[in-house]
Amino acid sequence: MIRIGLVVLSVVAALAAVGAAGWVSPWWWIAAAVLVPPALLGVWDLLQRKHSVLRNYPVVGHARFLLERIRPELQQYFIERNFDGRPFDRDVRSIVYERAKGTDAEEPYGTERDVYQPGYEFLVPSMAPRPVPKEPPRVRIGGPDCTRPYDMALLNVSAMSFGSLSSNAVLALNGGAAAGGFAQDTGEGGLSEYHLRPGGDLVWEIGTGYFGCRTSDGGFDAGEFADKAAHDQVKCVSLKLSQGAKPGIGGVLPGAKVNAEIARVRDVPQGRTVISPPYHQVFSTPRELVRFIARMRQLADGKPTGFKLCPGSRQQFLAVCKAMLEEGVTPDFIIVDGAEGGTGAAPLEFADHVGTPLTEGLLTVHNSLVGVGLRDRIKIGASGKIATGTDLVKRLVQGADYGNAARAMMFAVGCIQAQRCHTNACPTGVTTQDPRRARALDVGDKTARVQRLQEATVASALQIMASMGVTDPAQLRPHMLRRRLDPYTVLSYEEMYEWLSPGQLTAEPPDSWAADWKAADPDRFTV
């Protein structure tokens, strides 16, 4: 309000100077020449809808863009930092922004990367590339116990809650999903009208706090869950076990952000900080987890049901696989969240040192399901710093069936990574419940950006696959992705990692898996 007031004062001062120049003395034109341009600029900033920063910070917000023009390397400070402060690739950020704006284009010159640096990865092109498919393929989600399968897009909006995000940000994300024919994961913050109003497909996520289907004592409310899962827009339901950026701890929503609306959506008291438990009340063993997944699917009237986790112990995940076999129950999907995934608030040590990176997590989950003969029933989603077509293709090679993006989608709705998410003072209106700040985010403009980003990223992935001689993700193989280990050694993923064959664990597990397989207990999560 103070910022808008300053613009009003500058307009009044400019008009007064012009009036004085005409009625008092021509010398006042000097003052008018100084006061009128910033006044007009401030009015324009408030009225324009392209830049959220300028709507929230008229006139002074231009300093950010001016500094970037004068010293492009200052982007490293202003817009190229991860949520936890680690560098985010400049080329990736540029690609995401340009695609969201619809200005993505080829550029001259070659790569700026050191292709001989250990760790450099590349996809293998074919001498017989294929035409790019006219329509992007979709992934059928739904195992033998699912009566209402869903065809998932190759790239979707990853889990981000209303409460963490503003109402306008949620509206833009779901509007983009509706326009582009992909899905939005609600995050664990409940099912709000902003998820439902635009009409986009939803994956309703339930976390340890059971927000939106919560009893007064914090337990799971089966009746409320069934009522909300019946919404036609809810295409899948997902149980969140853990999150990549902070596995093993619950989320926190500061009391300052828990207004009456969020309290109603989450079934929590208004104005009080909401802390999600680190564990679930509805299960304590792998077998109970599997049974609860079956119960969720029944309550959701046969809609696809699965869970999300940042994998840790391979032995524990194998225990879940054993429970699936013994109970005869499988989830329809599993979302693997990598430790490199972002968040609005997490202890730095968790972000840096706890959790399995996405590559190893995907390999663990994919190979475990293959090894127990269940991979054909369960689809795997991947989330954790997926921003480009290259990212998506790599994850498909590593065992995923589709991808989810959060960070890139936030860029599309205007996030500049100011790292003010937890303060309720987000400068672009993305992660705030302050209505005066949230209004800066123009829903119509950002909806179009979300839709364009998803469409262009999937198109890029299909173009890359076509250059590899592949027309369908199912044709991707581990030998198509390679990594430089040192200046003289390059190996493919087929050579670097072990790939199990269907049913191998139940028949004769390899030595490298035998100990974990033997120790895996479907009736307890061993440490």
The CATH H-level superfamily of the largest domain is: Aldolase class I
Biggest sheet descriptor: 8 strands, parallel
Q: Tally the structural domains.
A: 2
Structural class of the helix and strand makeup?
A: alpha/beta
Could you give the distance between the termini?
A: 53 Å
Rounded average pLDDT: 85
Q: Number of helical runs?
A: 21
Strand content: 5-15%
Strand ordering within the main sheet:
4-13-12-11-10-7-6-5
Low-confidence stretches: 70-88
CATH architecture of the largest domain: Alpha-Beta Barrel
Structural overview:
The protein is an alpha/beta fold and 527 residues long. It has 2 domains: 2-78, no CATH class; 139-518, TIM Barrel (Alpha-Beta Barrel), CATH 3.20.20.70. It is 41% helix and 12% strand. The strands form 4 sheets. Strands 4-13-12-11-10-7-6-5 form an 8-stranded parallel sheet. The protein has a 3-stranded antiparallel sheet with strand order 1-14-15. Helix 11 (286-299) packs across helix 12. The chain is globular and about 100 Å long. Mean pLDDT is 85; it is low at 70-88.
